[in-house]
Amino acid sequence: MERTIDVIASGHLCLDLIPQMDHVPLAALSAPGKLYEIGPLAISTGGSVSNTGLALHRLGANVRLMATVGDDLLGQIIIAFLRERDPLLAEMIAIRQGHASSYTIVLSPEKVDRLFLHCTGTNAVFSAEDIDYHLLAAAKCFHLGYPPILPALIANDGQKLAQLFRDAAQMGVLTSLDMALPDPGGASGRANWPRILERTLPHCDVFIPSLEEALFMLRRREFDLWAASTPQMVSLAELRAFADEILALGPAIVGFKLGAFGIYIKTAPLSRMQAVSLESFDCARWADREIYHPAFSANVVGTTGAGDAAYGGFLLALLRGLPPEECARWACAVGACNVEAADATSGVRSWDETSARLAEGWPLSAQRLK
């Protein structure tokens, strides 16, 4: 079958409710009994499926979305939102009868990094059975996001997650996995992440979580020690050692999204690159590479979905045959565009518009890792 679809974005899908509250002090969130006036409510779809999928769509990729919603009002809003963008985007969204849809309340007081209040909804039952393998055979890339909030996939030490990636890899599809930060006090925080990744990553070509997510799953002590200051606490040498540790689990391309500090990418040796199922993929050019790209300067309005959008920029650059350093550059560019809007997707520009902005000499942020 001819691979006419660029990316299938699958996994977690929800509705984001984002009140405008950048004037509200952070301390207000822990002060009961008080009323704070806030601005308008932005409503958009959220989760990896929406954030990465719609970023790819805005960039000009041919994308399909595979996820589930409930048969409630929120589910109707999610589907209507996607259909308004492009009817094809809602085609493969399954409706679960008698289930509540997933939603997230996104709080960004004082323009700090956001806080989430999340209802899992139908994502609790999303599993490999929700994947249309016939359509998957027509795709170049299968990208799945947020296993920590897809409990059916990570049950039994990720048995179904590993099987899903094994099946996709055997179909000759480029496989990609993104993460969300587990809830330390919830079931996802107690999951055996080293074992889950050990089973899944041999079948995963691209794995670019945030540094915090990777630390939580594989180096919990360091995550607890550094907390919210993680990017400022690490050096490039430490990232290199950590990336090598993850590459040893089997993926071809490993990276860390570093927020305001940009992105770090490290790749496997040539023997692993030769197993990547992607036409016109230059194995030699991608083998044994290490790239660090700082973030671009941006007028930050909101950070919702920035990492997901950056991942989309990386994947599309990869699919279009760009070299590793350009893929990292595109990840940072799309992420920077994203943060210039309050929601998760409207800041993302088309491929041509983003390319023109890069060509104009877009300045880099002064925040760098050493």
Please describe the structure with a list of short key phrases separated by commas or semicolons.
nine-stranded mixed sheet; alpha/beta; UDP-N-acetylmuramoyl-L-alanine:D-glutamate ligase; single chain; 370 residues
Show the helix and strand layout:
Blueprint: E1 5-11, E2 14-19, E3 41-46, H1 47-59, E4 63-70, H2 73-85, E5 93-96, E6 103-107, E7 115-119, H3 133-136, E8 139-145, H4 151-170, E9 174-178, H5 187-190, H6 193-200, E10 206-207, H7 211-218, H8 220-226, H9 230-233, H10 236-247, E11 253-257, E12 263-267, H11 270-273, H12 283-286, E13 290-293, H13 306-319, H14 324-338, H15 351-359
Parallel strand pairs: 1-4, 1-8, 2-6, 4-5, 8-9, 9-10, 10-11
Antiparallel strand pairs: 2-3, 6-7, 11-12, 12-13
What does this molecule look like?
This protein is α/β, with parallel strands linked by helices and 370 residues long. The chain has a single domain (5-11, 48-100, 131-359), classed as Ribokinase (UDP-N-acetylmuramoyl-L-alanine:D-glutamate ligase). It is 38% helix and 19% strand. It contains 15 helices and 13 strands. It has helices at 47-59, 73-85, 133-136, 151-170, 187-190, 193-200, 211-218, 220-226, 230-233, 236-247, 270-273, 283-286, 306-319, 324-338, 351-359; strands at residues 5-11, 14-19, 41-46, 63-70, 93-96, 103-107, 115-119, 139-145, 174-178, 206-207, 253-257, 263-267, 290-293. The protein has a nine-stranded mixed sheet, with helices on both faces. Strands 3-2-6-7 form a four-stranded mixed sheet. A hairpin with a 5-residue loop joins strand 11 and strand 12 (263-267). Helix 1 packs across helix 13 (306-319), helix 4 (151-170) packs parallel to helix 6 and helix 13 (306-319) packs antiparallel against helix 14 (324-338). The longest helix has 20 residues, at 151-170. The radius of gyration is 19 Å and the shape is globular. The model has no long low-confidence stretch (mean pLDDT 93).
